Amino acid sequence: MPEVTLTPAAERILTAAEKLFYDNGIHAVGVDLIAAVAGVTKKTLYDRFGSKDALVTLYLRRRDERWRTHVLATLEAAPRMKPARRPLLVFDALESWNAGNSRGCAFVNAQAELPDPGHPARPVIVAQKRWLLDIFAELAGDAGLPKPKRLAESLLILFEGALVAGSAGVLPTAIARARDTAGLLIERG
Question: What's the Cα-to-Cα distance from 17 to each of 34, 53, 144, rounded to whole Å?
Answer without folding.
Answer: 6, 11, 43
